[in-house]
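yo

u said u wanted the structure for the complex thing, so here. seqs first:
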Amino acid sequence: MSIAIQGGTDDFDFIRQFIRERSAIVLDRDKDYLVEARLAPLAEQKGYTSIRELFQALRQAPLNSSLAKEVVEAMTTNETSFFRDMAPFECLSSIIIPDLMDRRENTKQLNIWSGACSSGQEAYSILLLLNEILPQDTWKIHLLATDINSAMVARAKLGKYSQLEISRGLPTHMLVENFHQDGVMWQVSQKLRNLVTVREFNLIAKWPLVESKDVIFLRNVLIYFDVETKRAILQQIKRVLEPDGYLFLGGAETTIGVDEDFERVDYPKASCYRLRSV
Ligand SMILES: C[S@@+](CC[C@H](N)C(=O)[O-])C[C@H]1O[C@@H](n2cnc3c(N)ncnc32)[C@H](O)[C@@H]1O
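structre next:
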């Protein structure tokens, strides 16, 4: 069965508002094609004959219904890869980890957060690097990985990737040393998975009290939000980032013009920031 689109202007206005209120993702009018492309399969899967029927059901559904959640999740963009953009990871291994190893010499513990982790490649890239740099068995790593999308959270927990995903950025020696083959998939070793806590978390929800973080990766997610939301999230980041900690944003994201308490770390293309008071 193929699904009829038949959504009116009111429907698209409604869905734009709906997605923005629940996830902060801003969908401009020129993204109606994206709404159709993402929601038509969901409408079909739910047995509706048109997207309009899906919109009607959504208007009547309770705020916390599974339909509301599925619609929001369908509108998230989960593009990611191992060692995405490379420069942030080079900056991490050549400057930031050595600096934090000095500063945390007494506790020998690093707390790291991959916010908006998608299917987990970012979190495992960080762990794979730390695994190579930090002296084994003397340093403790706590890595929290979160995303709004429950299917991505489940994938990140499982740590299983296709050959195509593996071939997008994972160095061969890291594959050989840290993954095992499971049919056509590759799974991250239990040892590394034990170091990660993966949870669902909406960046615009109330932030729980979390252990403060030495390094936060919040990459390629602020780009979907308006400037007020970016500012509010950076305010929260300041609450959970150690005063001498580091924040990584995506290549097209910056704190400049949004929150002047951050300054850029001088490393080409890394989009790494720290608090000015340091
Ligand atoms: C493009 S991916 C980025 C993944 C990874 N950080 C990277 O750079 O490769 C953006 C992720 O942000 C998540 N996301 C979108 N809105 C969110 C929100 N309000 N709270 C938490 N995560 C959100 C999406 O589910 C998606 O997995």
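The chain is about 40% helix and 20% strand. Residues 23-25, 76-80, 84, 116-118, 122, 147-149, 152, 202-204, 219-221, 224, 250 surround S-adenosylmethionine (CB under 6 Å).
cya
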